[in-house]
Amino acid sequence: xxxxxxxxxxxxxxxxxxxxxxxxxxxxxxxxxxxxxxxxxxxxxxxxxxxxxxxxxxxxxxxxxxxxxxxxxxxxxxxxxxxxxxxxxxxxxxxxxxxxxxxxxxxxxxxxxxxxxxxxxxxxxxxxxxxxxxxxxxxxxxxxxxxxxxxxxxxxxxxxxxxxxxxx
Length: 168
Hints:
Blueprint: H1 2-20, E1 21-36, E2 39-53, E3 58-68, E4 75-93, E5 96-116, E6 122-142, E7 145-152, E8 157-166
Antiparallel strand pairs: 1-2, 1-8, 2-3, 3-4, 4-5, 5-6, 6-7, 7-8
């Protein structure tokens, strides 16, 4: 009897926890996440995201974003971010919600370069940098879709995200 009661309680807890967790992804546009011959430009990335609601007002939303920055000939750029944001939902009606967000991020960039100077030889190497920064912004949701805009202090850029989350 005790074992069946314990299993019932665990099953109920698992149902409640799964009802509060969503997972999904989307597209991200970063104002300084792309590179070409003239320097920085807009860059596009993809993100994988989770969302865990503590209650009707607070949730946490960790995500990983990988940008496709493009790069001039002879240069290969890798740029990604790991974000941990808290959302404060100050408006929620039926399927529509509006929230403010704040959080931390770790941003990483790596540059590999290789230039061939013919008879003078090759010039190659790599450099990388990582930085911890803050996120500040807001977003909106409709059903399982979301859109948000945030400022990232690590690479001093604005990121605009749209995507979808699956869960109940």
